[in-house]
Specification:
By secondary structure, the protein is an alpha+beta fold. The protein has seven helices and 16 strands.
Length: 285
Amino acid sequence: MHETHLASGKVRELYALDDDRLLLVASDRISTFDVVLPTEIPDKGRVLTGLSAFWFARTREIVPNHLLGLRDDGRSTECRRLEMLPIECVVRGYLSGSGWKDYVATGAVCGHRLPPGLVESEQLPEPIFTPATKAQTGHDENIDSAAAAELVGESRFDEVERVALELYAFASDHARTRGIVLADTKLELGVDEHGRLVLGDEAFTPDSSRFWPADDYAPGGPQPSFDKQFVRDYCESLGWDKTPPGPDLPDDVVAGTRARYVDAFERLTGISFDDYLADPDVVLA
């Protein structure tokens, strides 16, 4: 089968299989502060692919998704082509990251006025949908619902907000039973040829979400996490100016990061990572 290379993202390579199908290949690249680092994290792409497929198989009742099948390499996903929406669909259940910075500055996050006196990493009274623009370069910009509705249309926005909040509630409840707090997540939604909303890209992975160990959760500051924070903290410690080229990662940071990704996979799925490597379809059962 002839595959045509369409694009390279920070982590993924995108190929066309035919007019209706794409091949999404997750590499082991890791980016921090929007810079792809020269050192790869072994098996990271397989963790992202396997976890996404695990969630896709379990959220079909909420919204259809782009998954057609997994390839034996554990990092390649055959998927349907979609017209992706021009917004990042972010749901926050806890006050962290850019949401915390916005709250400190304005008392609100993306137009959601929040109670005074909240502390960093505190659970919000209820999860909020906080869309962002998709930046071609640099950082995505947080926007309010009115600006997002202008980009996608009022009725589509209402549907996207409802679906994103439902997906977050489902994944958050599941993660909590596995000893993990899903603090926030970024989802990518698109539209198929029939005009239906479809979940695409990746879902509830350490790259698209903040996962915290529930046992260690203590609001009032940053939390230990299963995501790229370990790498970010190392890069911050170097005094690097966050412009390319990024720093090389030492072996212990690589090993520690891989261990966090694999731990997140195994905790969330209840499946041994070695079993996934032997048969990727195990996450679909």
